[in-house]
Amino acid sequence: MKKKLISLVLILGILFSLSGCKSKDLEDNKGERLRVGVTINPLKDFAEAIGGDKVDVFSIIPDGSDAHDFDPKPKDLKDLINTNIFIYNGLGMEEWIDSVLGTIEGKNVKIVEASSGIDAISISEEVVNEQGDEEEHDDHDHGHSGKDPHIWLSLSNAIKEAENIKNTFCEVDPDNKDFYEENFENLKSDFNSLYEEYISKFNELSNKDFVTGHAAFGYLCKDFGLTQKSIADVFGEGELTPKDLETLINYCKENGVKTIFSESTASSKEAETLAKEVGAKVVKVYSLETKEDNMSYLEGMKYNLETIYNSLK
Questions:
Q1: What is the pLDDT of residue 6?
Q2: Torsion (CA) 288, 122, 67, 236 in degrees, nearest 10
Q3: pLDDT of residue 24
Q4: Domain ranges, ordered by start, for the chain
Q5: Which class would CATH give 8-190?
Q6: Cα separations (Å) of 212 from 41, 186, 226, 298, 299?
Q7: Angle, helices 177-203/297-312, rounded to nearest 10 degrees
Q8: Per-residue pLDDT at 214
Q9: Considering only the top CATH level, what class is 204-312?
Q10: Fewer Cβ atoms within 10 Å of its own Cβ: the N or the C terminal residue of the chain?
């Protein structure tokens, strides 16, 4: 994916237009809802579940948009400096975040990197398999390095992100600390229950391998002892070359793969090509970074786990 840069002219225009704006004073905001800005949809779900009627949560990224390539507009930044809290995922998910943070710095907005404290999967110019081991793959060299940002696709990581959000709500609005703590514990219980339901199911399977269109599910694989092969890399990049296609065809045949997963927000053309070659079907799966089919985060995770599990039985 291409990294977008906000031009110097736009930055100067934004800073000039916002120079007279003031963010909400938290001390003067007692009795009102906390205004919370977020980036990706899982963070919106977590914040709303924990904050309940004490918060007003909005996402600056429209539903259906790619968080990596999002291009913040002056209105987005104006909205953010008038919030109490801004929450972003981090780990390179929002490639444009530095310009936003630079703009709202000093505007009395509490900034939260939701991935703080999470043990992220390292990636490099080699494709990294979803058990955390590097494997060489020359065709997918796109010059990326760093960490896999798709942490919310692990239920345990989702709990940590939610905890970071809860802690911030308690800090900013201590009068409602017990309310936030209780809602977080309820959310944590829901995530743990879903994990316990599926860890036992996956542990019973001998087949642990599946194929996706985009290598976004490394954290889910780490949680449940699975391995994914993918058409595109962690960043959704890479074309299905004849060599890649041959490799994936052999892998599918050797492992009896009869389902090729394709994210609902991505083109399924290459997944369909592979499926046709191996006599498999293409099935929708969710990366969950944006709102899809009106599903909550928990509903989307349950769908993913059940769908992957059924494909491996």
A1: 43
A2: -80
A3: 53
A4: 8-190, 204-312
A5: alpha beta
A6: 21, 32, 12, 20, 20
A7: 10
A8: 85
A9: alpha beta
A10: C
